[in-house]
């Protein structure tokens, strides 16, 4: 048995059509079964929106000292160059640590100064 429901407001009319009887409405287990049939079982995932983090220097090849760094790396080789670079970075971190000890800065401030030194090195081209 089909039933029509009609409601009139102040302006215009709102009409809704209900097909079936109140006894045939979905409830309980029938609702869960119908819901599970309408939901896709497998969801496909597209490519990530942002690229994964990269350890590469965003300012590679840029900066005042980048040409000298690249020439030095080409002359002495990548392996030896990276060893020297690692030693220089470690030495600079020690200097920052000693400076922080002398002025009484805490570990959080020291870490901030080391991060700042890394950013400055990237901008100047030392990490090219």
Automatic annotation (TrEMBL):
It comes from Pelargonium australe. InterPro entries: PGR5. GO terms for biological process: photosynthetic electron transport in photosystem I; response to high light intensity. One of its GO terms (molecular function) is electron transfer activity. Transmembrane segments: none annotated. This is Proton gradient regulation 5. One of its GO terms (cellular component) is chloroplast.
